[in-house]
Design goal:
InterPro entries: ARM-like (IPR011989), ARM-type_fold (IPR016024), HEAT_type_2 (IPR021133), IMB1_TNPO1-like_TPR (IPR058584), Importin_beta (IPR040122), Importin_rep_4 (IPR041653), Importin_rep_6 (IPR041389), TOG (IPR034085). The chain is mostly helical. The chain has a three-stranded antiparallel β-sheet. α4 (52-75) packs parallel to α6, α32 (600-615) packs parallel to α35 (673-692) and α40 (787-814) packs antiparallel against α41 (822-853).
Length: 1131
Amino acid sequence: MGEHTDFQNLLVQLQSTDNEARTQAETAYDAIPSSSRFTLLLQMINDKNVPSQSRHMAAILGRRLLVNDYASAFEALPDETKVAAKQRLLLGIVHETENLMRRKIADLAAELARMQYDDDGNSEWPEFLQFLLECSNSSDIGLREVGCHLFAAVPSVFGNQQAGSLPIIGQFLGRAIADPSHYELRASGVRALAAFIAQNATESAVLQALKELVPMTLQTISNAIEADPDDDVMLKALVDIADTAYKYLRPYLNAVLELCYKIVRNEELVEPQRHLALEVIVTLAENLPAGVRKSAPIVESLVGTLLKLMTEMEEENDWNEADTMEEEDDSSNALTAELALDRLSCALSGQHVLNEIIRTVPGMLQNADWKQRYAGLMAISACSEGSSKLMETMLGSVLEAVVPRLTDPHPRVRYAACNSVGQMASDFGPKLQKNHHSIVLPALVQVLDDSVPRVQANAGAALVNFCEKVPQHILTNYLEGLVAKLEQIMNAKFQEMVQHGRKLVLMQIVTTVAAVADAAEKRFSPYYDRFMPILKYIMENAVHKDLRLLRGKTIECISLIGLAVGKEKFINDVGPVMNLLMATQTQNETDASGDDDDSQASYMISAWARICKLLGRDFENYLPVVMPQVLKSACIKPEICILDNDEADTVESDLDWQVVKLGEDRNYAIRTSGLEDKATACQMLVCYAREMKESFAPYCQQVLDIMVPLLDFYFNDEVRSAAAECLPYLLGSLKARQPEAVVAAWARVHKSLLRAITNEPERDVVAEHLLALAGSIETVGKECVTNEQLNEIRGLLDRLFHEHFEKSDERVAKRNDEDFDECEEERLMTEKDEDEYVLSKMCDVVHAVFVTFGEGALPFFQQLIVFCVKLLEPGRPWSDLQWGICLWDDVIEFGGAQSWQFREFFLPTFMQAVHHQQPDVRQAVVYGIGVAAIHGGPEYNAVLPNFVAPLIQLIEAPDAKSSDNNLCTENAISAITKFMKHRPECLPQGEAGVVALIPRWLNWLPIWDDSVETEHVYGYLCDLIEANVPALLGPDNANLPRIVKVIAEAMATGGLSETSNSDNRTKSTTASGDNPTPQQNGLSAAPKLSAYQRCVFILRHVQSNSSLVEACVNQLSEDQREAVNSALMGQ
């Protein structure tokens, strides 16, 4: 096969249209060693007797070979062979007469040149740069063009000589871009500039040195469009610059916007040109929003143009009868303009976009042309997210204009009205649902009777959006009528499917029923039997491949209904439903027709997880059947390929693929359709590990093997987040059933999480990884965490703290930027919120170390103390102060008496922060005061009395129980409670002060928001009741009705429940663990009982005294009585 002729024949076979012949040729080609292949391909390229098509194929294969297997294909060759290959490539470029072939040889040479640079920018092929410069100065226009092409392909070609070569680069590119005679050279010059600027987008010196090329480039683009309206090469390059190196265009932003808007509104140009110019504007709006907002006239004019483009729709004769979702043409003016309006609105935060919408859309909605009405409604949908703050103030008037269109005479307008209402239900929920339900919900229900399937289905979709954010008490008022209508439509559409095979509306109604059940929860129970039989019938009988999606949605609906109504109602159907699911799973595994694109798979995986959540440990028997499919989906490998620009253009139109540009004529494409299933499967594994606890242990090692590598799965954020979230649960399962495996598993998790956090690009995912690290530390305990690992964790936190303060300084600097405005401030605040979230999880990691090591964590903490002090500095954001105080709370709580040595760092701040205007800051310091009362040494007696008056002031403030202040107030009540119990000497008058304070303290109750503080406070209340303290009970137990009401309210609001004493971020102390005072009134109080259990015993005691019952029960509300009865029956 090594013979020249044989290989030439093989290239011909690789291009065969006969699949079998081509497959055999591919097998034979792959069998040739990579280095031999590369040599043979070079021979084909340089042999001009070989047919042109085969030479092209050889160049393409050679480039792919270097991309995929450089080490074997080229690096393994003898040095003299490598030198000769490089020379032959450069000579091939010079002597090639066919332009397309010359470019393909250049691409191959560029690919090889990219591989020749080391980390310091030194090249093993210096002749390549020399060749490029010679081409740029050649009298041969073709070689000058190739020089630009090579530079675009290898913009790092100057390596470590780049800084000193900027004048040469500027001259080289400027001569090409401004060439008066040759369009191809100008286009290549613009592409090269775009590639080089993108490569150096953060290098201010480069941007400054080449800034004079921007006006030249804009003029060249303008001239090119006038000369050849069909060519879009230069505009694509401008899009690349706007996307990756927008700062380069900032000094000429207005000129760029004017040029591009001129192109957008020029109706004589072809659509791709106009769309690319629009893309430049929108991309700049996203990257330079404040700068674009300064060009308000252009923005408002552009919105008007977009509204006009959105009306450019075609009539579709069969639209009314179609039984499929509307297929949108990505290349149409209407959809391109709609998407641009959406992005523009989000980027510019509304006002400039909304001005034109307010002026124009009302008239469009009244226009006799249905296309105008349709476009107006879709415009409202498009800008509602980005303009939500402004539109929210006029929501009533917007709905008054939109809702009547639900009965428009034209079906496509009704369809758009459903779309608009549904979008607003998402963007303005739950305010829309709370304030406008009487207008919106009945109108949508009415459209469910529409005669056009697509309109019916879209009304159902809008109802799903409405239900996602509707308060349950509002939905309940409409539930009977809504359910009746859904039942009617479902039955009718089921018959229609059976008789005519039409299923669009039925599939949507199934989803809508699921959404209603999910929102109604237990209140859906009366309607359960009206839907479950038909849903089970569909699930059992919709087995044809064409019905897989319907069956999948039905499976989803059944599981959501089951989760909504609860285990008791669903239990009789769980067995049959699980049997059907398992039968499907078994069938898919054995059926030859099964395939990886089975649309049921993701629905089944999610349904199993919901049923697992419902059944808890009872789900264990099903794990052997459900796990194979979940694991298979979690292991889906993304399909990735490297493409040139022509191939990328072809793939981009496929919705299942996403194309990412790597450089000039280099792109990678990833098949996204499987990624959603992978993410769903990973999230379900989290559910199983969390719900099944130690019962999941048999699968832990296998799931660890899957999840740990997925921490670095950069194709999908949800996969990485799920992988991290799962880890503490897996470690917990192993610890319960296979403790000998925990040390090795933790070592692996620790190493992988630290690497993932360091490399993670998304701030929210960084936070989730940190939370997983904290959970893992607490789970495995100090027996598993080594000093070396602790030191590595400390190093990670050190880097993250530095990063936090640097980002904060950068935001301060940006406020002095020329483009800073109110909208930019809003964006900076969003960025601050993201950093604050990361900081909170950093504090969680420190907290986990304290929980695990107690006082032994102080040396770890002392290495971070400089950051903890810096967080408390005056002038820092209040969120820094809040989390800084939380860190010191941990020092006090877990450091105990040893925390006193650090008092100078935090006590002055505590004294000031107790009066801080931000409730979250006050809450943090008040909690710290409370833990000091319990855990601080006797030295704290010198300072704690100073906090009593401020705490009482907080508790008794007029707005103490407001939604903003209540959590802080409850912490203050708990802190005083801890003083009363643990530090009475710190109260005025000592022990006597406690007795005097008790009646006042009782009037502060109930509390319910903070479950940990509720445990402390109600634990102390039980202490006092069980000790028969007169100051609490009052003369002749006169206060008992009040006490019962306090307990009942806490139970009714969920503050006191069987699960209410769970950990609450920094709070791990359980009040009821303290031994209560010995009893005098016959009540039993075991020290290990929770406050809830003790309160139930007290209620039972009251219940046994008929003379007390009436006085105590009559003053309770209905909810309070129901909560008390439930507690008494449950225990």
